[in-house]
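thought: user wants a sequence for this fold. calling inverse folding tool.
action: design(structure=
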């Protein structure tokens, strides 16, 4: 496959996020709190993708952008799970996760991977934590004795997308710096695969925004619907 094909695939992967973002704007008044939090993540992701692509085409290293984005992305994802898993973990647990990850990211920049190096350490840690939260959410669903319509539950789709995305990319994030140096055929192939997985994640985002969840009678039962 040609390099042009992978560049086109990468562009599609970057800007297909416009689909769920525009949908969230159209459905803004009917979105629940989980969907709104996903909307914030979509908006930040689009801004970062736009900036990184502009820098890339100007031959400027765009990796510093991803160092900051990794932290912001993690905090936004934790904010989603903070509501969805409110009955499983305390708010102090999520606060500790956020603070701990920010400290780790700063230490990683200062001593291990500077702003102009791919932050594989931080992205690997983020992937591992999100996988843990995703599995925790599915476990919480299994423990719930009350039947719920998962196909109309936005968090179910978000969580499924996170699990597929971060599970698929965990090894890629970790080995990127050591195995793939520069623009080689192997690196284009791997990042092409990453682009495909990212498109799959965006499809899950779109479904999560599209569905209309049933309202719970109890506000405390957040992890099922909200």
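)
observation: tool returned 226 residues.
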């Amino acid at each position: 496959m040609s390099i042009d094909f992978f560049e086109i695939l990468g562009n599609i992967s970057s800007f297909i996020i416009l689909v769920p973002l525009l949908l969230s704007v159209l459905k803004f008044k009917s979105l629940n709190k989980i969907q709104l939090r996903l909307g914030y993540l979509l908006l930040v992701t689009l801004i970062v993708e736009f900036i990184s692509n502009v820098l890339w085409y100007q031959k400027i290293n765009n990796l510093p952008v991803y160092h900051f984005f990794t932290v912001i992305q993690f905090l936004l994802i934790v904010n989603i799970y903070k509501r969805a898993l409110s009955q499983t973990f305390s708010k102090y647990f999520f606060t500790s996760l956020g603070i701990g990850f920010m400290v780790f990211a700063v230490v990683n920049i200062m001593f291990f991977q500077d702003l102009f190096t791919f932050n594989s350490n931080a992205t690997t840690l983020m992937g591992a934590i999100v996988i843990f939260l995703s599995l925790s959410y599915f476990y919480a669903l299994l423990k719930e004795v009350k039947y719920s319509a998962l196909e109309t539950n936005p968090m179910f789709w978000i969580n499924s997308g996170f699990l597929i995305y971060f599970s698929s990319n965990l090894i890629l994030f970790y080995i990127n710096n050591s195995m793939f140096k520069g623009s080689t055929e192997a690196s284009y192939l791997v990042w092409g695969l990453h682009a495909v997985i990212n498109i799959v994640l965006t499809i899950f985002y779109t479904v999560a925004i599209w569905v209309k969840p049933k309202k719970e009678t109890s506000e405390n039962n957040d992890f099922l619907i909200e």
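thought: summarizing for user.
answer: Here is the designed sequence. The chain has one domain: 3-210.
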